[in-house]
């Protein structure tokens, strides 16, 4: 039996091309909050936003640690992470959470 992850680290691509990193227990809800301008000051001022990657984590502690690690990465490394995620999704591996369009 497959269970869904307890927490996720997500990256959003903002309207200006920047990447925003956060963590949540409900990716669809959190992306909707960001898209509505209620997710945080940064994304509210960089709309529109789109989910670029969603990485499953075993728990909230692991998600917070991974979020902090990713935030310390240079932009090129974050972009490489997103591109790797896109390749996995295209190959049908680790498709991530279902996010309504």
Q: Can you characterise this structure?
A:
The chain contains four helices and three strands, in the order ββααβαα. It is α+β, with helices and mostly antiparallel strands. The protein has one domain (7-60, 70-90): GIY-YIG endonuclease. The termini are far apart.
Q: Return the CATH topology.
A: GIY-YIG endonuclease
Largest sheet: 3 strands, antiparallel
Question: CATH superfamily assignment?
Answer: GIY-YIG endonuclease
CATH C-level? Alpha Beta
As a percent range, the share of strand residues is: 15-25%
Order of helices and strands: EEHHEHH
Assembly type: single chain
Spatial strand order of the main sheet:
2-1-3
CATH architecture: 3-Layer(aba) Sandwich
What is the domain tally?
Answer: 1
Share in helix: 40-55%
The number of E-state strands comes to 3
Q: Which structural category fits the helices and strands? A: alpha+beta
What number is the mean pLDDT? 90
- Low-pLDDT residue intervals, each spanning 5 or more residues: none
Concise summary:
This protein is of the alpha+beta class and 101 residues long. It contains 4 helices and 3 strands; from the N terminus they run ββααβαα.
Keywords:
101 residues, alpha+beta, GIY-YIG endonuclease, three-stranded antiparallel beta sheet, 4 helices, 3 strands, 23% strand, globular
Topology (SSEs and partners):
Elements: E1 7-14, E2 19-24, H1 27-35, H2 41-44, E3 49-57, H3 60-72, H4 75-90
Antiparallel strand pairs: 1-2, 1-3
């Amino acid at each position: 039996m497959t269970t869904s992850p307890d927490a996720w680290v997500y990256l959003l691509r903002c309207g200006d091309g920047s990447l925003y990193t956060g963590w949540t227990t409900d990716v669809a809800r959190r992306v909707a909050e960001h898209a509505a301008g209620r997710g945080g000051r940064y994304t509210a001022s960089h709309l529109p936003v789109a989910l670029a990657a969603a990485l499953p984590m075993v728990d909230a502690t692991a998600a917070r640690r991974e979020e902090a690690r990713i935030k310390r990465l240079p932009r090129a490394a974050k972009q490489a992470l997103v591109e790797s995620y896109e390749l996995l999704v295209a190959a049908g591996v680790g498709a991530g959470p279902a996010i309504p369009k």
